[in-house]
Amino acid sequence: MKLHNYFRSSTSYRVRIALALKGLTYDYLPIHLRKGEQRSAAYLSLNPQGAVPSLETEEGALIPQSMAILEYLDETYPEPPLLPDTPLARARVRSLAYAIACDIHPLNNLRVLNYLVGPLGHDQAVQGEWFRHWGAVEFAALEKRLAGESETGRFCHGDSPGLADICLVPQVVNGRRFDCDMAPYPTIRRIHEACMAIPSFAEAAPEHQPDAESP
Question: Which of 34, 37, 13, 16 is nearest to 25 (CA)?
Answer without folding.
Answer: 16
